[in-house]
Amino acid sequence: MKHSFTIALMLCLFFSCKKANNKTEVTRGLITKNAMVVSARAEASKIGNDILKQGGNAFDAMCATQLALAVAYPYAGNLGGGGFMVYRKANGEIGSIDFREKAPMAATKDMYLDENGDVIPEKSTLGAMAVGVPGSVAGVFEVHEKLGSLPIEAIITPVIELAKKGVVVTKKQEAKFKKYQPLFLKANKDSILFDLPWKAKDTIKYPKLANTLQRILKYGKDEFYKGETAKILAKFIQDNGGIITEEDLANYEAKWRTPTTFNYDDLKVISMAPPSSGGVCLAQIMKMLEPFNLENHGQNSLKTIQVITEAERRAYADRSYYLGDPDFANVPVETLIKEDYLNGRMADFSFEKATLSSHVSHGNIQVVESDETTHYSIVDQFGNAIAVTTTLNGAYGSKLYCSELGFFLNNEMDDFSSKPGTPNMFGLIGAEANKIEPQKRMLSSMTPTIVEKNGKLYMTLGTPGGSTIITSVLQTILNVHEFGMTMQDAVNAPRFHHQWLPDEIRMEPNKFNSKLVSELENLGYSINEEDSPIIGIVDGILVLDDNSYEGGADYRGDDTAVGF
Ligand code: DON
């Protein structure tokens, strides 16, 4: 809602936050004058930042940060996964690249069903059958070739050094290794590096991954998709019962796509188009919210939570029916984000009572025919900005670890709709548009997003969190724009989520007061504070009035902003 900064920024932020949160403190993230990288690990942010300091641009830093996360953050950083990047150049030009995984050529619609047509537990989530053809290496090389400025040696060499030198285990990482060790044992024939009892402060070295990166540096993208690495990888996956072939790898290509854009007040939001549902759902939700005076209702107030929930409910119902890989299904993006269609969707909304999801289906339109991902945001000293969300899907992906190459493989196949109406690991339900087909990309919720204000770069942000990604990005943008928060406060603020089905508002536990929760329940909302200890790990950068940058690195992870 209309928000004009008429007094000095700090003062304004102070009062807005005081009003919204009933607290006087304002937390600020790192502030720098020239450039910044915010990512899930300090080591990766530092490597990206060093590239910028050497005179590289945001795209060079993207390549370095993506590869460094594959070393420092095996939980979600990856060579064996995929992702999306949205960018805005200093001259205002925008674009995006899709390096999402693809279904192997031998994939079939019913590959995860038994003879009774029921979904076979874990087949799409654990082990080799869950793996989609990885896209990250193709993404890095495509970005470097088209938009980078430094030689590739300058980008990959520090990452190889990091892999050789090793990375210190954090407390949060120690807990994650412990939690997933039973699944590592289940998914892998032999013991893997992460079966060891790693403790916080230990250093893990990655010599095999360093060798793989060394070969990639020497022979380029083809090493991963057609060279020795491809041969080892295809054989490894097949030896473990999977169906990815050398041909699948050789055929993989990243794809440039036009971002989904829309206006909200004086903002222009630039986000990822299908096969991500992020941009479309964010557009739908924000356009449904625009007529309401959220600023007056207040941040995380009863009315604000109600109206956001109802807009989310309707957008996720559309997601499940209409969205999929646009190379395979007809995805009516333009119609779905039209104002008159969205006004109609909210026509039955009332502050008096919750709408039941059983009463909400996808809209009728004329159709012409958990945090286990990771996000990083970068702005450079030239004014370019990028937002990248990348993933193995679940924590450590399929848990299948190729020891010879030194990396985990994704379980992205679970993002397809294995059976219409049956929820995937994020409880999301899909339909025809997202059925499994050979070489198709599975529908994603990843929402790397850049926001302009009055035609200028304003924010770059994103988050992991499966189905909750879209709503976490939404709330962070609203926290800054509607409620005047700093980037760090916007990231830190408690989050909630509704995704149509199951019909419940998921809330971060012990963050919302019990009176508010009872009021929502009295209006007919079902509240779930059990299942999501955290919702999203948002990393973002905000451009302040004096053109300096404020980083928001989420305390929910080990996320760190580094800049100069
Ligand atoms: O692309 C998607 O929507 C999912 N594969 C993202 C997975 C994710 O965010 C896991 N983190 N909780």
From TrEMBL:
Keywords: Acyltransferase, Glutathione biosynthesis, Hydrolase, Signal, Transferase, Zymogen. GO terms for molecular function: glutathione hydrolase activity; leukotriene C4 gamma-glutamyl transferase activity. The active site is at T373. Pfam families: G_glu_transpept. Cleaved by autocatalysis into a large and a small subunit. L-glutamate binds at R100, T391, L392, N393, D415, S444, S445, G466. The keyword Mitochondrion does not apply. It catalyses: glutathione + H2O = L-cysteinylglycine + L-glutamate; an N-terminal (5-L-glutamyl)-[peptide] + an alpha-amino acid = 5-L-glutamyl amino acid + an N-terminal L-alpha-aminoacyl-[peptide]; an S-substituted glutathione + H2O = an S-substituted L-cysteinylglycine + L-glutamate. It comes from the Bacteria. Residues 1-20 form the signal peptide. Its EC number is 2.3.2.2, 3.4.19.13. Pathway: Sulfur metabolism; glutathione metabolism. Belongs to the gamma-glutamyltransferase family. PANTHER family: GLUTATHIONE HYDROLASE, GLUTATHIONE HYDROLASE PROENZYME. This enzyme consists of two polypeptide chains, which are synthesized in precursor form from a single polypeptide. This is Glutathione hydrolase proenzyme. It comes from Algibacter amylolyticus.
